[in-house]
Amino acid sequence: MSSHKLHILISRTDTFVGATIRRVLGGNLNHCSIAFDEDFSSLYSFSRLYQKFWFTGCFCCETIDRYSSYEVFTLEITDDDYNNIMSFINELKKGYRVYDYVGAFLLLFNISMHFRYNFICSTFVAKCISLTNAISLDKSCYLYRPMELYNLLSNNK
After folding, report:
1. What is the per-residue pLDDT across 18-48, written as a single tens digit (0 to 9) for each?
2. Do residues 144 and 104 lie in contact, with contact meaning Cβ atoms separated by under 8 Å?
3. Dihedral sign from CA coordinates of 115, 87, 154, 98
4. Of 26, 44, 24, which Cα lies nearest the Cα of 34?
5. What is the DSSP letter of 141?
6. Quick one: which of 35, 61, 48 has its CA closest to 98?
7. Which of 24, 42, 109, 129 has the fewest CB within 10 Å, making it most exposed?
8. What three-state secondary structure class fits 44?
9. DSSP secondary structure string, 73-140?
10. Dihedrals φ, ψ of 53, to 5°?
């Protein structure tokens, strides 16, 4: 059985939206994404498709150059874990999946409301983690904020 690496990036974007997220949610990092390749050429997340427009959030493939700083956490995952995440990502790719603005607002109050294929960056990454046996989540994946994932992953190094 071979193994794969799931790279989780918790990052900072120096934009007005990024600063707002950091101010409201706390912490110095405000975005989460995943990659399977060592050079991070394919980063998957939910974010704004066009950085200048607030409401263009969707599932997308990003590039690392949009971050001013980031922390990388690498999980060793099994073939089954990898296949579970890739199946999930391929399902997301089948349609236009929008950023979960309602869920983002409710997250401020620790309320979980989930639409099947709509996420925010941190709930998407938490969902991917939940599809593995690498780390156990202590609450619903739809309630994770970026800094909570950072703390969870830091404690599991």
Report:
1. 888 888 888 899 999 999 999 999 999 998 7
2. no
3. negative
4. 44
5. G
6. 48
7. 109
8. strand
9. EEEEEEHHHHHHHHHHHHHHHTS--BB-HHHHHHHTTT----BTTBB-HHHHHHHHHHTSSS---SS-
10. -110, 120
Q: Which amino acid is at 48?
A: R
106 vs 133: CA distance, rounded Å: 28
Q: Is the pTM of this model over 0.85?
A: yes
The token duo for 139 is 């609450």
**Block residue for tokens 């703390």:** 151
Q: What is the dihedral of CA 110, 116, 120, 126, to 10 degrees?
A: 70
pLDDT value of residue 76 = 96
